[in-house]
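Lab notebook page, bench 4
Experiment: in silico fold of construct C2
Operator: M.H.
Input chain length: 143 residues
Purpose: comparison with the prior construct
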Amino acid sequence: MTIRLSKDLYTAHATATGGREGHSATDDGLVNVDLALPKEMGGAGGATNPEQLFAVGYAACFQSALGVVGRRQKVDTSQSTVSTEVTLGVAPEGAFGLRVGIHVSIPGVGADTAQQLAEAAHQVCPYSNATRGNTEVTLTAEG
């Protein structure tokens, strides 16, 4: 299902040069990073990579979505944490793909409530909506 926007709220602009061993920056200069191939992939490491940037963005976005559903359901999620792991791999057809693990912790709520809120956030989060149907995502939660 393609999500069509009825109202634009914000547009980010970024430029990359040199691919995985290059440089990326946003037009406002707030993100300005050198990139390096991870040691696990035969590179030198020592700089960030696209999977780390995706993981950071997804975690932050998901936690915001968790806050939205928490407010809607009158559950305090202000002390929650969201951790993500993004794995780059090869698909059977030879293409490259990602697998994402999301772990949500919401202190002060039961495990069932935490899982329900995490699943609701997964329906609201723009990153989840962008990856749904083409990226394996595993969602776990604890209270």
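Observations: The mean pLDDT is 96. Residues 50-72 form the longest helix (23 residues).
Next step: discuss at group meeting.
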